[in-house]
């Protein structure tokens, strides 16, 4: 938290996001790892965190986006491998944070990936499956 005090962090959660069955400690670790990466590699600019339901895919979609340099297209899959660090001159680290994120998300039946954020920066996306009883028909959403 102290490292985020000087940053603008916006959180947007759609009203129709249902409760999900997750391990809260493990999913908290995913967000801690993602936010630590933002602090390391995007030292300035706003951070956007969002959650919404993808009714067609029956998934909960989570996003963490920054305004840093982003990750080159050819290296976006590599960053999720163990011991991989794209910026050797960056603050210390073992290169395990995103690999841990991928393992945790996969253990929940989901997936995590990174794309370029429109306007610049990295956009990490997490997709988690929703149970059938967690979904309200889209036409009944507020």
Reported for the largest beta sheet, the result is: 5 strands, mixed
Give the mean pLDDT.
86
Q: How many strand units?
A: 5
**Distance N to C terminus:** 33 Å
The secondary-structure class comes to: alpha+beta
Strand order in space, largest sheet? 1-2-3-5-4
User: Low-confidence stretches at least 5 residues in length (pLDDT < 50)?
Assistant: none
Order of helices and strands: EHEEHEE
Radius of gyration based on Cα positions: 16 Å
Protein described:
By secondary structure, this protein is α+β, with helices and mostly antiparallel strands. It is 20% helix and 24% strand. It has two helices and five strands, in the order E-H-E-E-H-E-E. The longest helix is centred in the first third of the chain and has 18 residues, at 24-41. It is globular. It starts with 8 loop residues before the first strand and ends in a 13-residue tail after the last strand. The model has no long low-confidence stretch (mean pLDDT 86).
Gist of the model:
With 142 residues, this protein is an alpha+beta fold.
Question: Top keywords for this entry?
Answer:
142 residues, 5 strands, 5-stranded mixed beta sheet, alpha+beta, 2 helices, 20% helix
List the helices and strands and how they pair.
Blueprint: E1 9-13, H1 24-41, E2 47-54, E3 59-65, H2 97-107, E4 111-116, E5 122-129
Parallel strand pairs: 1-2
Antiparallel strand pairs: 2-3, 3-5, 4-5
Helix pairs in contact: 1-2
């Amino acid at each position: 938290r102290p490292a985020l005090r000087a940053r603008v962090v916006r959180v947007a959660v759609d009203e129709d996001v249902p409760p999900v069955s997750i391990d809260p400690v493990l999913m908290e670790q995913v967000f801690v790892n993602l936010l630590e990466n933002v602090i390391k590699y995007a030292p300035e600019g706003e951070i956007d965190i969002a959650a919404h339901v993808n009714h067609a895919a029956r998934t909960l979609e989570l996003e963490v986006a920054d305004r840093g340099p982003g990750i080159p297209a050819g290296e976006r899959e590599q960053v999720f491998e163990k011991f991989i660090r794209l910026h050797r001159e960056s603050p210390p680290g073992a290169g395990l944070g995103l690999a841990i994120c991928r393992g945790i998300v996969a253990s929940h039946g989901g997936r995590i990936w990174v794309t370029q954020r429109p306007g610049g920066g990295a956009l990490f996306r997490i997709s988690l499956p929703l149970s059938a009883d967690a979904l309200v028909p889209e036409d009944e959403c507020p």
